[in-house]
Amino acid sequence: MTEQVAAVVGGVIGGILLLVLIGIAAYYFWKKVYLQASYEELTSPSSPVEKSPGLQKPADGQSSSSVQPQNSRTRTVPFIVPPKFHKQAWIDMTNGEQIQEDSDLYVTPDSGPRSSFHSLAGAYQVGVINPELYKFPEDKSETDFPEGSIGRLWFSVEYEQDSEKLLVSLIKARKLQPPSASCSPFVKIYLLPDERRYLQSKIKRKNLNPQFEEDFVFQVSSNTLYRRTLKFCVYHVDKQKKHVLLGQVMFPLKNETLSGENKVVIWRDLEAETLEPPSEHGDIQFSLSYNDYLGRLTVVVLRARGLRVQNDKQAAGVFVQVSLMNHNQFIKSKRTSPVLGSSDPLYNETFSFKVDQIELDSASLSLSVIQNGAGNETCSLGRVVVGPFMYTRGKELEHWEEMVSKPKELVKRWHALAVST
Predict the structure, then answer these.
(1) What is the chain's mean pLDDT, rounded?
(2) pTM of the model
């Protein structure tokens, strides 16, 4: 009984496979017959080719459009002559087709883009890549140095709010100006107002363009962070192992964005140490710039030094008030944020005033250093006025004239404070 069942099953399977094979064979046979019926059999030439002009000139009074090759086929597969072989001589064949005459190939020059019809006959250039569009902006910070430069320093600053850590990355310095031909620089980093403690980089032997790539960490509370200032002092170690100051950079943290995903690289030009002692009532440093196109006068209050802060008001803040005058008439006034209890405050604040170019001969700026007192009382620590010849002389006049002669450029100078009696 089992053998009979197996025989039946085997027969059924064999029959199914036979039917599948028959179906496949029938499909391929049908496909072959169908495709052959869709093409027209080409007529073979019955006589050799005779040379004659392929495109005969039309007879008088007959237009060229009426010239038709004889025995032309009515149903043929279209043939497109490639554009590079246009303007050729052709020979008529007995079946109406044309072939090219044996002669040197004439290649038409490529003259700009061709139509989509021509693109069927061959590839052609559709455009080129402009490499200028893919260039990164050129970094000129290592090539453009101001006249009298004593060097430039690159660094980055970041603050971690959770751990209250100030992360300082010292990157590099360029074009240092040591007193001798050889230079072995290093950098001390202070977090002012604390000048007793500092962090120091490694010494780079015999290198005017040192690459530091060192990281430093200061522990500082977020409450006091923006009242602090980073001070970078670049030193050179001479043959007697003495430390010679090459320049310094002051970087107030007050107006900086120190948190973010992308670390921003900052560069600053080195400033020489001021060897002159402070004036009797102190000095103030600020920059002036005038934009003649916008009619805008910009003042950057940088810092002051040697101020005679009142002893009983050490905790009071010291600020700078910037006033614009015209013909000795008050126009507008702006002031910095106060800095608490320091005789050498750092501000780094920018102010702008609207001043027409024709008013530069009659306008002036007054910068007053003021200390807050008890209640609403204030105490003037000194004042300086810069402007044209009508109001000033000496360094104050020179600063104003240099600003006018160098539009859109920041002109920075120190000025002695005077106390009016």
Answers:
(1) 77
(2) 0.49
